[in-house]
From TrEMBL:
The chain holds residues 222 to 511 of 515 of the full protein. One of its GO terms (molecular function) is cyclic-guanylate-specific phosphodiesterase activity. Keywords: Membrane, Transmembrane, Transmembrane helix. This is EAL domain-containing protein. Residues 25-276 form the EAL domain. It comes from Selenomonas bovis.
Length: 290
């Protein structure tokens, strides 16, 4: 049953010590519990750039858990566990609160950062208080709702009834919705149209498949989404060649190691400041909350 958090039963070397899979899984479990109890879930940011101008326009917030022995633990190790134990609701709330607190800092408001994407797990989407809780945090920190983009996967759409009512309330408050990981599952256009998404993120695997064996599927998909009025983000952009080809296919935004890896918030701030054309501008009061 701990399968989800044990990537392999092979010994894992951490700081000169060997942990077997089970010990590793227990260490992850403890680290998750501790981070949630101590409000110590970290949030990293990865820039998202405009494919045409190459300017940073947004960022995706990605959770990390820091452990003294293990270092930063990746979400693939603790998200499934948090979903299984139910602590994903609290984890998601912490991530959302930390993003809002960061966005409300005066120095961050001076950056030309149009929005931040925040991931929502299908389990969080089943919480009937989700909209209420998010809206009250957003209001507390006075973050304009249009700067908050929530990423959900197709898996979440399966529970359409609970979700639609939550989404309607958050849309009304000014939040935007993004479909994450398109092309990784059963992806169908009809489903996509049941939620008022503004942006579709193409899964890394789907994007990569095109570059190992080019055909018309990727450009055709991009074309179809653009015609339906969605903007498109390609994930996993790791080279200049990929960035150029995706721009030629009219992909709107690009995200990937070619630009930057996810980094701690403070590093992200420095990155934004040092990046060409991303200097701070005169502060304009962000008082419109919607
Ligand atoms: P995702 O939402 O699809 O996030 C994109 C993942 O791709 C991130 O992995 C990011 O580090 C990685 N990535 C970005 N560009 C590249 C690239 O060029 N090459 C490669 N190889 N990878 C790239 P990460 O941070 O490990 O997160 C994995 C998944 O965990 C996320 O996938 C998301 O589904 C989930 N996750 C992360 N943070 C949260 C959170 O706060 N809440 C929830 N519910 N899920 C989260
Ligand atoms: Mg995502
Ligand atoms: Mg994704
Ligand atoms: Mg993904």
């Amino acid at each position: 049953q701990d399968q989800a958090v044990v990537p392999s039963q092979m010994p894992i070397r951490v700081d000169g010590q060997y942990f077997d899979g089970l010990r590793h899984a227990r260490a992850v479990k403890r680290a998750l519990k501790r981070a949630i109890a101590k409000d110590d879930v970290s949030v990293f940011f990865q820039p998202i750039v405009d494919a045409h101008t190459q300017k940073i326009v947004g960022a995706e917030a990605l959770a990390r858990i820091y452990d003294e022995k293990l270092g930063y633990i990746a979400p693939s190790e603790f998200i499934p566990l948090a979903e299984k134990t139910g602590s994903i609701t609290e984890l998601g709330m912490q991530v959302f609160r930390k993003v809002c607190a960061f966005m409300s800092e005066p120095r961050i408001r001076m950056l030309q950062l149009d929005w931040v994407n925040i991931n929502l797990s299908p389990i969080q989407c089943m919480n009937p208080h989700l909209a209420e809780d998010f809206i009250s945090i957003q209001q507390k920190y006075q973050v304009p709702a249009h700067k908050l983009h929530l990423e959900i996967t197709e898996e979440s759409i399966i529970n359409l009834n609970t979700l639609q009512n939550q989404i309607a309330r958050m849309r009304e408050a000014g939040f935007s919705f993004v479909l994450d990981d398109y092309g990784s599952g059963y992806s169908n256009l009809m489903m996509v149209r049941q939620i008022p998404f503004i942006n579709i993120k193409l899964d890394m695997g789907f994007v990569r498949a095109h570059f190992s064996q080019p055909n018309t599927l990727l450009p055709d998909t991009i074309r179809a989404f653009l015609e339906l009025g969605f903007s498109i983000t390609a994930e996993g952009v790791e080279s200049e060649a990929m960035a150029l080809a995706l721009d030629r296919m009219d992909t709107t935004y690009l995200q990937g190691f070619h630009y930057a890896r996810p980094m701690p918030m403070e590093d992200f701030y420095q990155y934004m400041r040092s990046h060409a054309g991303q200097e701070t501008r005169e502060e304009v009061p962000d008082c419109d909350l919607a």
